[in-house]
Amino acid sequence: MSKSSTPNSLAPRSLAEWLDYLETLHPVGIDMGLERVAEVAKRMGLLSRPIATQVITVAGTNGKGSTLAMMEAVARTHGLRVGTYTSPHLVRYNERVTIDGDHADDQRLVAGFSSVEDARLQAPEISLTYFEAGTLCALWCLAQENLDLALLEVGLGGRLDAVNIIDADVAIVTTIAQDHANFLGSDIAQIGREKAGIFRTARPAVLGSRLLPSSVAETANAIAAPVYCLGEVFSHSSDYDPANLSADTQSEWSWSGLTCQGDVISLTNLPDPGLPIDNAATALQALILSGLVVNADACRRALHGVQVPGRMQWIGQWCLDVGHNPHAADYVSKRLPLAPEGGRQWALIGMLNDKDADGVISALLPRITDWVCVTLEGERGRPAAELAARITSLGGHVHHCASSPEAGVQVIAKQLAPADRVLVTGSFFTVAALLEMTLPQA
């Protein structure tokens, strides 16, 4: 199939066939810039009217997914019709788009990709990356739904990310840390400026960490975007240590923030969502700035039941977390409960070769007794032996190297005792492989 030809219109194509085709459309997988994707969006009518009554965009190195999930849960519990766009997916592409809590079905996504393709092929023809085409498809799907609220997760960037063709009513930056250095560089201040590129003049900018570089607020101030910063304008308080929580521990926290009019709002006796409280506090502040009139009981119900697949997700003895940089690994390490007395704390780890393996390993090392390293295939894959060498050099005990995540599970299964716990981490690919398996329990 040539790059300029659309799939045979006489033969309906499945979602899988569309996804395969989209990988042929552009010479590189990531091509930072908005001109091409914005022009196709204009042809599709996506820029002529809002895709939802309110739009909130979320950027950051870590915490985007959990912040978005908590906003979705709270908003839906208040009766709002909510659509979301997130990436990447874990098991099925359909996970990237949800409408009122349900994943978009194949038929809707196929219709979306057909709309993208029709617009792309108008003269002059425009080349799109896989991610750009997927973003346009998602925006088209959301725009069909008469949504009260659309929640959009930015990809690896901010200013030049395809999601940024949409002018959000509220924009969030969660955290800033070094990741995707090949595209964003290693200068934290510059990374902050890139992420802050999602802010808009006179529209609220929510800063979800006390440790953001000053460049984030400076970027907001330069365009007169009102800044709402964690620890200054909104805050939370609690009296527990997440690392020492047991499964049946009941913990609570409180929150205080501001409306757009400057009125103070406080919520108390909020349940621990099992996700970073900074992100929960940020979610509440952003929703209030979008115009949500919060009900305390609705917030409590939403936070009690929120779940994010692949983020501290427990399946029996196994804890699955997609963390793949030191900041995320540090959170996991602090949150990971100790194994019962006499038990071992295993780690099954597989990472891509463009991630900071030493930083991730160092963060987890104090909590792990036995490591099983697994190879991830593909152009960006990292061999298990390389991970093992890094763990050993840092003082960790490598139990085994396996050829794949699935093979690593089999190694642990032969040794797993009832008091053992297993952390699976290092990459979306590592976690996704295990989500498609039945994990053994001792």
Which labels suit this protein?
2 domains; 442 residues; 8-stranded mixed sheet; 6-stranded mixed sheet; alpha/beta; UDP-N-acetylmuramoyl-L-alanine:D-glutamate ligase; disordered N terminus; Protein-Tyrosine Phosphatase, Chain A; 34% helix
Description:
This protein has 442 residues and is α/β, with parallel strands linked by helices. The protein has two domains: 15-305, UDP-N-acetylmuramoyl-L-alanine:D-glutamate ligase, CATH 3.40.1190; 313-435, Mur ligase, C-terminal domain (Protein-Tyrosine Phosphatase, Chain A), CATH 3.90.190. The protein has helices at 15-22, 35-44, 64-77, 106-120, 130-143, 181-184, 188-195, 214-222, 277-289, 296-305, 326-335, 357-364, 384-393, 405-413, 428-435, and strands at 52-59, 82-85, 97-99, 102-103, 147-153, 170-173, 205-207, 227-229, 235-238, 252-258, 264-271, 313-315, 318-320, 345-349, 370-374, 398-402, 421-425. The strands form three sheets. The protein has an eight-stranded mixed beta sheet with strand order 4-3-2-5-1-6-7-8, with helices on both faces. It is globular, with a radius of gyration of 22 Å. It starts with 14 loop residues before the first helix and ends in a 7-residue tail after the last helix. The model is unreliable at 1-10 and 242-248 (pLDDT under 50).
Topology:
Layout: H1 15-22, H2 35-44, E1 52-59, H3 64-77, E2 82-85, E3 97-99, E4 102-103, H4 106-120, H5 130-143, E5 147-153, E6 170-173, H6 181-184, H7 188-195, E7 205-207, H8 214-222, E8 227-229, E9 235-238, E10 252-258, E11 264-271, H9 277-289, H10 296-305, E12 313-315, E13 318-320, H11 326-335, E14 345-349, H12 357-364, E15 370-374, H13 384-393, E16 398-402, H14 405-413, E17 421-425, H15 428-435
Helix pairs in contact: 2-4, 2-5, 3-9, 3-10, 4-5, 7-8, 11-12
